[in-house]
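#dry-run=false #mode=assembly
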Amino acid sequence: MKIAVAGAKGGVGKTLVATALAQYLGRSNHRVVYCDADVEGPNGKLFLHPDIERVHPGSVTVPMLNAAKCSGCGTCQSICAFNAILAVGKKVMVFSELCHSCEACFIACADGMLTRHNRHVGNISMGMAGNIRFFEGALNVGEARVAPLVSQVVHAAVRQAADYIIIDNPPGTSCAAVAGQEDADVVVLVTEPTPFGLHDLKLALALGRRLNKSMLVVLNRADLGDDKDMMAYLASEAVDQVARIPFDRQIAVMTADGKSPLGYVPAFDEQMHHVAAAIHRLQEAIA
Amino acid sequence: MTDKIAISVSSADGLVATMDMQFGRAPFFLLVDGETHSPIKTLSNDASQAVQGAGTRVAVLMAQNDVTDVISGQFGPSACTALEELNVRMWTAPSGLSAQEALLEFSKGNLSRQSIMVMQ
Amino acid sequence: MKQVVFVSGKGGTGKTSVSAALASMLDVPAVLADLDVDAANLSLLFDTQPGREIVFMGQPRAQVQVEACSGCGKCLAACAFQAIRIENGVAKVNPLTCEGCHACTLLCPEGAISFVPHPSGVIHVQSASHQTLVHAALDVAEDNSGKLVSEVRKVARKEAENQGANLIFMDGPPGIGCPVHAALNNVTLAVIVAEPSASGISDFERILQLCGHFGIQTAVVINKSTLAPWLTSLVLNRCVEKNISVLGVIPFLPDVPKALSQGKSMLSVDGLRSTMTEIHHRLMDLVHNDR
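#status=ok
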């Protein structure tokens, strides 16, 4: 079963829930994969302390011109929807930071003068964290296009033979978030009962609906604000809130220190039990 | 071949048009003769509505029209690289000027030359 | 027209809370604009009234003319985004994953694929307390772009002109990409909200470099300074080196996240009002003394 843990905004406890869920499910001898697809700020390793075994480069395809036989026809420029290729006479320039790797230029170039060049955009690391198989995508600093690396690390993770594959999603509702959720059987939305949290939950829910996903909601720092509006909203959308993680000093301190509260804070364990139980129920319903 | 100057402007009103400060998304470019400063024509910028890469496309427009110098407010990093490569000189003018005023400042040597940017 | 934009190099430095607090202290007519359209949160910090909406068009997306499609599947092979499937013998495009690249049209033997304008978000013009706020909401699976930022700014400018306001106060997008270039264009002042953290420092350096490239007058606010005082000194030293004004240094107070979580301004936190007032004065001095 593939579980995407997502949220429309950073800093709501998405990684805390994703890593704790991996650990919780891993306790009962399930084969668990944790995939950190939050490639702009992958923090899962801070909680899981994996031993990294292999690192692969993540790359995207960009065109490179072999100028020798270029006829200067300019077709590559006119086909590029992203204005990433300029052609003035025989002078052809590629702006790889604008390139979306659509490969239309390779199809269009009648002279066959464009060759595929791999541009390194980040790294994909693989390893073990106890009995959890660990994957992480980490985007190079300053890289603007996020979605390709998200897709690559998710595809690597979902190929594993496992009972549970947990995908720690990038925040937001852009194409990077779509790339993280596309393959999931269920999306666990993490949010908090604040005006920002509610606003972001609405966006995240809209994305899940567009992708036709089953969704569950975990409320983090559940007693921090007034949750009346949020509960009313969830009821109106018929989405289940399956766990309420309390605003607890010990959880906050352990989290800041890069330690998982699982196994140390009973109230936290109890909530992760609720999340796992909801996932089991869903699994039975699907099966 | 004589120099040809392009100025990014917000309307097709010749020399009295107000400058537009964004190179890639300016709606029009006024082309003038490099020596006499008399208007040659106004180019409309189809790339101004591009979702991305407007600046690089305008750079091509400049080259296709044999522009040697372009006066605008701000050039994005990709546009700078493209213009440099295409041997078009870039000049930045303060905001609020008309095309005519910008040309006057240009001929007095008051505009600063924009160079390319290398991000570390 | 004076234009101030808040930028940060990356999200999470408190750019929106700082700019919202300063916006609420403005005592001159101004229009507010939220250019951080991926997480347009500025409006949540104000009491807004429903207002005008303008639909925003993004990159055109592929559309298949069902009658013309033979279902040959050549477009599937061309699509690098796996956005096309064959359904009931004809090609079907998933608009969520189509990026509008035209590769499919090149291989379609029937010429059955066209590109149609595609609404990707809405620009809102609302009144917020005594000011007008322009902000945008992107649809899901859409990305921010320089075009949208420019559109929001255009609308804000028109609003300001209509109201006779001489100041546009903008919360910028995070990062250093295309949307940020559009946000920095022709501004009177860019205010970098910096956070003293290991990753925050490199973000700060990059946005500083970008502002330098554009030759924009730049000022700095350091937020959550007490989280890592040694990094705060580092930022301060860089500002001295680069001759950049520091508008102020805001300490980390646990009451700030608490106030923000309740939808309150950071001005409601004890001890911050005087710091913010000082920042506000320095900011307005820079804006008015420009050129």
